[in-house]
Structures are given as C-alpha cells and as structure tokens.
Amino acid sequence: MNIIPVIDLKDGEVVHARMGNRNQYRPVDSMLCQSSDIFDVICAFLTLYPFKQFYIADLNALTGLGSHDNLLNKVLRLFNKIHFWIDAGLKSPLYFFPQKNYTPVIGSESCKKQHVDFLKTTKKNFVLSLDFSIDKAIGPKILFENSEYWPQTIIIMTLGHVGSNNGPAISQLQKYRENNPNNTFVSAGGIRNSADLSALTKIGIHSALVATALHNGAITAQDLKKLQAKKYPEKRGIL
Fold first, then answer.
1. pLDDT beyond 70 at 157
2. Can you name the CATH fold of 2-229?
3. DSSP code of 228?
4. Side-chain-side CA neighbours of residue 171 (13 Å)
5. Residue 83 C-alpha from the chain's centroid
6. Domain spans of the chain?
7. Residue 133, C-beta contacts closer than 8 angstroms, at least 6 positions apart
8. 54: three-class secondary structure by DSSP
9. Which residues, 6+ apart, have CB-to-CB distance to 175 below 8 Å?
C-alpha cells in the first residue's frame, strides 16, 4: 500500500480539512507536532515514516483567494528528494515551478467545459482528481465518463468524506477500478485506520491519500512499516 500524506494549505498554514467545508478549516491539531507550519508538518510526517511522496492542496488558489506559489517553491527546493503532487487549480502552462520534483494535479472541481479540450494538449503529464461532494460529481460530466481525457493516474476524491469518520468510498472506487482496469486509482477521503487501507487493497486500490488518521495516531509508524512493505503490482503511472 502506497500511503501519501496530505497537506492542505490555507492562508500560509496547514489546516485540518473536514468534509469540504473550506471556510471552516482551522490550523491542524496534530499528535505529530505542535505547529501548523508546512515545514514542521512535513518534517513530522518524515519522522513518523520516510515517505517519498506527498500531496499538497493550495486552498487559496483553489478558491481564487491568492496562492502559495512562493512557499511551495521553497518546499520543493528544501525537500528535493521527495516527489510532490500539487493541486493549485487549473493554471497554464502546466505548471509554474522551476523544480522537477512535482506533478500537477488537476481537479475536476477546477474545470469548466472550456477547459476539457485543453487537457488533451498537456500530454497527460498530470494527475486527474475526480471530485465528489458525497456521491455527486463536481465538474464537467464528460470528465467522469470519458477516459479519453484521463492520464494514467486518477484520484477519486470524495470531499464529503475528507476528515470525517465515514470510511473511504469503497463502492465508488470499486466501480471505477472494475470499469477501467488499465488505470491506476488512488483513494482520497475518509480513511480512518489500517483496516480501511486493507479493505482498499482487496478491491485493487493500492494507493491512498491520508491526513487525519496520521495526525490523530490511528495509523501508527508500525502500521506504516507493515503496509508500505507490502508491494502490489501497479500499472504504469506517476506513483
């Protein structure tokens, strides 16, 4: 199981994402560190386990309230041995950081109909996030139905499950996995513990974005060693 720690940035701080209600996000309260500074949080995650990959959401950029470009540039330079997935909305050209240790994430929530054809011009060098409130798709319908627009790796992001205690969207993930066996799918939202991660592997999902369960200690260093030690065959992709 490939576990990818999540960092949500808002107004210069790492915040606790909860069920997509971004105006209510507050600075993260973590067992791992006493700070909401992004550098401290990344170091705390790395103390827990030597992760090679992180996901960062720039919530200011996603909501049209500025961006964290300068801060993210510093992160990429300092942690240059780590690969970052960065979701900062739909910007052109893809992307805007001089460093090479990142892959842009394009979320369906950031796309309008006029953006869909643009995705074909990117040579699919991005990760697509198919975003859902709970079961309702957010973004152009064609992105959810036509895999012609997809890159290799797809995040199934259930925003209504993020930071909740509801568990991952197993049935939804299973449907996408079964209907598109040549793509690599990543679970995002609702993961509570290692049992949830084991349930995902049973349906062929071997990568997951996780934040709350790491911060609150529900997934421990020992769990991570066991889970990350298990290797699963993945399709080619940016994982």
1. yes
2. TIM Barrel (3.20.20)
3. H
4. 2
5. 12
6. 2-229
7. 20, 159, 160
8. strand
9. none
